[in-house]
Structure formats: structure tokens, C-alpha cells
Amino acid sequence: MNQPAVSATPSKKTAPSILEFLYKHGTLLAILAVIAYFGITQDRFFTYENFSDILRSISIVTLVAIGITFSLIVDGFDLSVGSTVSLATIASAAALVLYRQEIFVTLLVPLLLGVAVGLLNSLLIVKFKLPDLLATLATMYAINGVQLTYTKGFSIYNDMPLPDGGTAPGKFIPSFLFIGQGELFGVPFSVLLMLFVVIAAHLFLTYTKPGRLFYLTGENREAARLSGIPVNRYRTYAYVISGFFAALGGIVLASRIGTGQVSAGASFLMDGVAAAYIGFSVFGAGKPNVIGTLFGSILMGVLLNGLTMANVPYYAQDIIKGAILVGALALSHWQKK
Amino acid sequence: MNGLSMRGMEKSFGAVRVLDGVDFDVRPGEVHALLGMNGAGKSTLMNMLAGAISPDAGTIAIDGAPCAFSSPFDAKRAGIGFVVQEVDTALFPGLSVYENIAADELARATQRPIRSLRQEKERAAALLRRVGLSIPPTKLVRDCSLHEKQLIVLAKVLSSDARYIILDEPTAALSEAETKRLFAIIHELKQQGVGFIYISHKLKEVQEIADRLTILRDGRVVYHGAAGSLSLEDIVLHMTGTKRRTSANQARTYGGDIAFAARGITIDKTGTTIDLYAHRGEIVGIAGLVGAGKTELAESLIAHRKTAGEWEIEGRRYVFSSPYEAIAAGVCLIPEERRKQGLFLPESVRANITVRLLSRLARWQWIKRAQEAEAANALVRSLGIHPPSSATAVRHLSGGNQQKVVIGKWLNTNARVFLFDEPTKGIDVHAKQDVFAIIRSLADEGKTVLYFSSECQELLDICDTIYVMVDGRLLARLPAAELTYEQLVYYCSGGEIDEPAGRFRDAVEKNGTVYS
Predict the structure, then answer these.
(1) Would you say B9 and B24 are in contact if contact means Cβ atoms under 8 Å apart?
(2) B355, A227: Cβ pair inside 8 Å?
(3) What is the pLDDT of residue B230?
(4) Of A38, B243, B328, B489, whose Cβ has the fewest other Cβ atoms within 10 Å?
(5) Which letter, b or e, does each residue of A80-95 get, where b requires 16 or more Cβ atoms within 10 Å of its Cβ?
(6) Mind listing the domains of chain A with CATH numbers?
(7) What is the pLDDT of residue B248?
(8) pLDDT at site B131
(9) Distance between the two ends of chain B, CA-based, in angstroms?
(10) What are the residue ranges spanned by the domains of chain B?
């Protein structure tokens, strides 16, 4: 299923050209293989509802993974995205339910919080020169603590009881719920949002001057600095963009489930990282790229959907997620050599 | 026979004969200096002695008994110690001084599993006293100064009972006072019967410390004898031979106005301050040995390193705190470490060469691809980059072509001051001529060029004016046309610059046949 990449490794000595082919097209083959497998074994797999469901769940992962892709492009890493998703989910739910805000503030507050997390990360990494993994590990914990402290560990939902005895004044308004649950021309709005972001980010990174400079900064920071590129500025932008997209993912998540669940974003870190690393190998790009990231999250989404249908429990799915990430890392490492 | 002797040592790498029947010996209690230009064969000879390279022919004997070293361990056991130039590579920074000194013992298979820390510390303290170092044995190596690290390596070498010690450029990074202290320790150890092989380009120091000299040139011994009988000038002439051209540079003309000046530029590594200036269209060389601080100066001039000072470019004064600002003002650096500092290896030639042109090639930040390809192809053609396609990945190019890409990214930009740091390192003769042609045409266009190099002949070939750099200081600003190769080598090696420029011409005329 997801195995061609991994199982190909032993044949490396005998057939390098096959491996080359698998490297370039392995992700696509894996997606097709997974779809075919579940299509044959699961009756309900090939239904419009199921595909719509897969795409909805992919849309959030893809948004988060695009943020991670930006941090990878500048040769950084952002572990705090999962916590940022949770924070944005809680923030938008709180704005709606506790403070009776309209759509504008409800969207603005979580996005600003996402940008703030990005600025905090870049302060630690770019200014104080902490290692990116450790700095974002710290912010991941701190941000998770912030959203837990704010909610005291309780979820935020319509008509929830308040400590003073009354019920919450606001509720999830339809315009907000439309983001995660509505459809345009029969396509879920969140999927359209994802496609728009994918295309915009792809065009930005491939065809614009700042996009080029993001890549150059990540490929050789010293050469970039000696070429007059303000590398610290671009690294800061990357973490801010990462925080922004994580927050956007959090908004879509809150809208989709219609409540503010605490720590709801935690699982998106692993899915997003796996998607971004799988993306390295799509079409043999050999570097982080948005189109690859999209295919990576499609692979993850289809696989997890199928496994759920096949009654594989969610905790066992983590084993498969881990295995996929190892496979993707092995592939990108092999490509570098 | 008493002492260490090497007879008829020969070694070829491929078709290149690096050593051609070299004899060399050291007696206990003497300092024998081994001299020669880069590529003369010094390192190869010493690596044979240290067991890192096996000779094609020749014998090594200690006290008359022949010995063959098949590994560095054999050499160590036979009593040969090597204090390498980069002492950091020989030490464990996170361990204490005594643990470092005991490290070799630990690696031995016969070592008892339980060690006495007290004994180890006492032993280390005794060895440290022997090398004149008064630091506690428990100090971490990463907290030690470079001078201290060097002596720790020396102590480590002594701990394995080395009787013959190779010192490779031991003073390259030391201050004058530290050098004096090192020499005092060498004298002390000489009294105890240790024999030293001393490799250095700092000829004045060699004269001070060495008892005997052996000078290599092109893999042969060209001089062997007592150190006192040879003047500094004669040493340089032996090292260089006399068949070198003086300045092959056809007289260039350049502007009379000062286009670039830097005042009070500090170099963090050496703690020195530099002033320099250059005229419009002038090619100014910075000549100095490896370790003189040239790269540090170049990187300070573009504010890539922490520095202070003041810049003046075509009459305007600047203070730079990052390369971004320096580049905006028209300074650019072609760095020494091309692949590490100059190139985006996974990218195409096009992306590498247009990085400074993107603002011009983009509209509303959108890169106009056709124009970008056109600009890149034009540069590829005019620089003669091979293969002649801007779509090639730059990592597939040869060193010379990669260098052209690094230079090419600054052509057609607002760069007015070009800093070239060892631009011919690792490129072939043909590419070197191309690079020289590019540099000359830049200067002819009125750009100012600073050329940092340790290759004296190159400096004379390309430069109009040459600064001599020694130990982080610029000692003199000399017109290249009045310099000979030997003079320049002599000055860079620490020779006095107060004599009239003609001294070597006379020496060559008098003794010409002797050295050739």
C-alpha cells in the first residue's frame, strides 16, 4: 500500500533506475495503490460522501502542512503548529460563544494569534539563535498550556454553562460554520479554500522574487547572506507564515466541528510534517514544495480514511503514520546522496 | 647512527612526482627546520614519518635500526610525535585537559579497565609543567586559548614518550609573546634530548629557533646545512629558485582618485586594525601567508564578520553592520570557500547567476522568466561558462566554471568594489587565465579590485599595487612593478621592508647560477 518506497530499498544495488522511477513517481503510485486497495476491500470507499469527507479532512492538514513547508524551505522547522491550531480553534470559539463577536473579529483574532506565535518563534530562533527544533518544542508546550489555561481544560460550545451560573451569550454563527461545513457549487468550501491556498502558495514560491529568495535562504544561508539577501528577514517571514497557516487551519477545524475542543490540533503536527516530507519526493523535486505537500496530505488522508473504514483503531493508525514519515525521510535522504 | 634518518624517500601521486629521493635526518636535542614553498613536498615527507602515507621507495631508521610504519600508531610507538597545525582537530573540547592527555593511553587495548583519576591528574600536571603551562588539569579544553591548546597537544605527544616531534606551523596563530614562550619551551625540551622538526613559513622565526635547515623545492632537497650560515634572502632564493619571472604585469593605468578606502577596520580573530585604500580601476593585492588574516579582512570589509570601522566609497562615507548594507553600497565578495559560501548547489546556473538581478527582472515581484533566461544566457556566453546552458545544475560544473558563476552574479549589478578572496583556489590553469581576464576588464571599466592571495606569483601577475599582510597587519603598500617574486615571498615571511627594493635583483645577478 504505502510500501513501494520502503520495500524498494533492498533492490537498490540491482536496479537503480527502478528506484529512480519509484522516487519520482512513488508517491503517486502509492496514492493510486492505496485507493485501489481500499476501493476493492471497502464497499463504501468509492462514494461521493466518502471522497468529500476525505477532502474535508485533508483541507486542514494541507493548510498546516503548507506552513511547515515554508519553515522547511528556509531550512528551519516548526513544531509549534499543532498547538497553534488548538489555540486558534479555542480563540475563534471563544470569540463567538463567550464574546458574541461577528465573523470579522472571529477570524481576525486567531489569525493574529498565529502571527504572534510565528513572531515569537522567530525571535527565539533568528534573534536569540536557539536551535529551531528546541525553540519550537518549547513554544509548542507553552502555547498548548496557554489554551488549556484559558479554557481551564473545558471545551467551548453553544449554550455552555458559565461559572457565574448563566449560559454563554453567543453561539457558532452560520457564516462561520460555512467555512468548514458549507458547500459552493457542490464542493466543500474548505476544499476550495485549500485549493486556493495551494495554488497561490505554489505560484508565489515558484514564480516570484520573494519565493526564490525563500529557497535560496534555505539552500545556503551563508551564500545567501553574502549575496545580499536579508536572510534573517526571510526566516522571520517563514515562521510567521507557518503560524498564520496553522491558525487558518485552526479556524477551519473549529468551524467543521462546531465547538472549541481543547488540544484539538495536536494530531495535525505529525500529519503535516509527514505530508511536507512526502512532498519532497513528488515528481523528484528533492526539496520542500507546495504541490508535493498537497499530494503528501492526500496520501495521508486517503490512507487514514481507509484504515478507519477497515476498523483499524486510531491508536494503531499512529504506527502507520510513523512508518510513513520514516519512509519519506529515508527517501529524501537517499535523494540527497 | 644516533638519531632519526630518512634516506632516498620517493613518492608519486598518479603521474606527479611529489618526492624525488629526499634525505632528511634529526638528531636528539636539535631543531631541524624543513622549509619550502607550498607543494614542495614537506607535508608528504612528514606524513610518511607520521605513518599516514607509505613511501614508494626509501627507508626510515631510528638509531640505526630500520623501521616501517604502516599506521600512525606504529609511528607513535616508535617515538614520533606530530603537533598538527589545526590543534583543534587533535583535542576533545568537552573533556578536561588531563582526560585529553590520557586519551591515547585509554585507546590502548592493554589498558586496565579501572583507572586512577588521581594518578592521571598528577601525571598530567607533571607533563603540563614540562611544557611550561600553569593551568589546572581539570580545566575544560574548550575554555583554553589557542596557545594553551597547542601546548596541551605537545604535552599529549610527550606523554607517549615521543623523542622526535614534528611541529607544523606552530606559530601561525600565535602572538609574538606566545611565540617567545613556545620557543623557550622548545629550548627546554631540547636540553632533555628531544629532537624537533620545525615547519614554518615565518622565516625570521625559523632563523631564531632552528639549528639546521633543509630546504625542499619540487620534491628535492636544494639546501641542507647549518641555519646560521644562510641569510634570509638566501633562504628565499633557495625556496623559490631564480627562474621565476618578476612581474609579468603589463603596465596598466588607473585613476588618480581614491575610489575605496577603509579606516580602522578591526579583525576580530587577530585583534588588529587595518587601514587601506584603492584608486578607481586599480587592482590592489593583499599578500600574506595562510593564517595571516586575509580571509578575515575580506569578510570584515563586507561586514560578514563582527567588525568596526569606517568605509568610504567614491567620496561617500559608510558604516556597515551587515553584508546587506555593504552590498547595497556596491561592495561585493567572491569568497574563498566557493561551494560553501558562494553557490546555491541544488539550483541551476540561472538561479545562481541572476540572484542580484531579480529586482530588475521582476515586475510586481513576478519574475519574468524569459528575460531571466536571456540575462543568464548572456552572462554564460560572455563568461565562457561550460556547458553553455544556464539550465544546468551548478553542482555539476567544474571548479573553474563554478567560480565564473560566483563572479558572474556581480557583473551587471551596481557593484563597484570587488573583493576576490583566493579566487584561483582549486581551478585549472585555463580557468585561471579567464578569471584574470575578467578581473582586468572589471578594473578597466573603472571598478576597484582587491585581490587576496597567498600565491605571490599570481599577485605579481594581476595586481598594480600590493599590500603585505603579516599577522593581521598591513605592513606596506608597494607598487607591483617594482617587486620581485623573491622579495614578496621574503616580505610575507616576515622579512624587513626597510631596504631599497633592488636587493633581490642584485642577489640574483650575483648568485644566479648557484640557485637555478
Answers:
(1) yes
(2) yes
(3) 85
(4) B243
(5) bbbbbbbbbbbbbbbb
(6) 4-336 (1.10.3470)
(7) 53
(8) 85
(9) 33
(10) 4-240, 247-330+414-483, 345-413
Instruction: Compare CB distances from B328 to A210, A213, A228 and report the shortest one's residue.
Output: A228
pLDDT lower than 50: segments of chain A: 1-14
Pick from B322, B342, B365: which is nearest to A210 by CB? Answer: B365
Which residues of chain A are within 8 Å of residue B346 when distances are taken between CB atoms? 219, 286-287
Whole-number Å distance between alpha carbons of B127 and B323: 46
Taking CA–CA distances from B325, the nearest residue in chain A reads A228
* Whether B324 and A227 lie within 8 Å, measured CB to CB: no
Residue of chain A whose alpha carbon sits nearest to that of B419: A226
Domains B4-240 and B247-330+414-483 alike in fold: yes
Distance of CA B29 to CAs B26, B32, B186, B189, B190, Å?
A: 9, 10, 10, 8, 4
The rounded distance, in Å, linking the Cα atoms of B159 and B137 is: 14
In contact, B356 and B409? CB cutoff 8 Å: yes
Nearest to B345 among A207, A220, A224 (CB): A220
What is the ipTM, given to two decimal places? 0.84
Q: Does A299 touch chain B (CB under 8 A)?
A: no
Residue B381 has pLDDT above 80, yes or no: yes
pLDDT tens per residue across span B217-243: 888 999 998 888 888 888 888 888 765
Residue type, B262: A
* For A337, nearest residue in chain B (alpha carbons): B346
Mutual angle of helices A231-257 and A81-93, in 10-degree steps = 50
Contact state of A229 with B355 under an 8 Å Cβ cutoff = yes
Nearest to B346 among A229, A230, A287 (CB): A287
* A-to-B residue pairs, Cβ atoms closer than 8 angstroms: 66
Helix (H) or strand (E) holding B341: none
pLDDT score at A240: 98
Domain B4-240 has CATH 3.40.50.720: no
Using a CB–CB cutoff of 8 Å, tell me whether A215 touches chain B.
Answer: yes
DSSP B63-112: TTEEE--SSHHHHHHTTEEEE-SSGGGGS-TTSBHHHHHHHHHHHSTT--
In B88-227, where does DSSP find H-type helix? 97-107, 117-130, 146-159, 176-191, 203-209
Separation CA B320–CA B306 (nearest Å): 10
Is residue A186 within 8 angstroms of chain B, CB to CB? no
Task: Give the pLDDT confidence of A104-124 residue by residue, as tens digits.
Answer: 999 999 999 999 999 999 999
Nearest to B402, CA basis, from B440, B347, B448 = B347
What type of residue is B4? Answer: L
Q: Give the class (CATH, top level) of B247-330+414-483.
A: alpha beta
